Structure formats: structure tokens, C-alpha cells
Amino acid sequence: MQVIILTTDIELVSTMDVSKENEAYNISEEKLPENTKIAAGSWLSSSGSHYQARLSVLRLIFSLIISKIPKFRFWYFIGDSTWQDDTRVVRHKRLWKALSSRGIEVGHSNETFEELIVSDGMLRFFGAKSISELSIESVVKALSEERCSYFLALPQDTDIKVALHLGWDVHDGFDKGLLRFSVENGGLLFKAIGEFDDPESGFVGLGEPELVQKLVE
Asked: What is the pTM of this model?
């Protein structure tokens, strides 16, 4: 089933099965967690710049989750896009200092995690910050700057470090392992969508059908 709703200047399109042809979001079965049905909601706006559109969309998504799934916590997930040489400078800056030097800051966070993954003498850092409504502007900027980043809504008792230990890769779509983590923990995984030359921009969120249905109904 697919539903299209207009909320002020934001268009919502949803599907209860992303593996079937639809207008919300399509993912082939081989790119999905095994034996798992995934639903999606796509919120898009053509109002103003891409930043302004994503800002209004994310504010709406926050309000929907707070009202409909009140016991969830919000997280910003980010990882290094590529492997880095194992140098003293890289180990000193780690993730958040390196991002800060690039102008990527996420404010109003009361909990921060960071993990290092080492492989064949190369390093990658992955991190997560708890976020609130006060963080929305900085989160939208960060998500637009770094492709290896996501916004998640998860139950309060979720062990965030599990995902950071596994890491994830850069994708035009969603990382399969991170999607599995989110779904297995009963959460929702969001990614910014809309390229620079697209007329619309916003977010798409994935999760189990019952959860997505609760959010879009």
C-alpha cells in the first residue's frame, strides 16, 4: 500500500515494501537485510534552498516521532568515508576533532561515542552523538557535508557501540549492515536525499512496516 499526503509544503510518500516498485524509495532485495521486510517514508520539500527544505522536513520528522513514538532517542551517526594512514596526527584528531577542523559540528549533544577500526595498518573512525530538537540545524548541515552519515531514531536502551564496532560504508543509498542494526533494534534509519540539481530535497526513513506505518498514518 502506498500513501501520498501533503503537509503544508512537504510531500510524504510511503511504501510498506521497498523491494517492490513504488514512488517512495526502492531497494533491491539483495541490498536488504535477509528475511526482513522494510518499509519507507519519503518526506520532500521544494521550498527554498536544499538546506531550508531539509531543515523544515527534519523538524517535521522530529515532531512526528516525539508525538507518535515518544520513548525513542535521536542520534547522529557519522564515519570516515575512507581508510586513513595510521599516523600520530590521525590518532590525535580521531573523529570529532577531524570533523571540527572541516567545520562539521553537531551541537546540543549530551552523549558522544567514538570507535576506532583498524585493518591492514589503516584506520577508520566511527561515532555517534545523541541529539535533540536544538541540534536540528547543525545536524542538517552535517548530513549535507558528509555522505557517510545518518540520522537514527532508536529505543532508549539501544547499545549504540554495537553499530560503531561494525562500522559502515559510504553509499548513495543505505548501508546494509547499519540498516540491519537499526531494524533489529526496532529503530528508524534516515538519510538525506536530493542532489544539488534536484528540485526537491528532504529525508527518507526506513524501518519495519508497523513502525513506519505508525509514523506516516
From this structure: 0.93
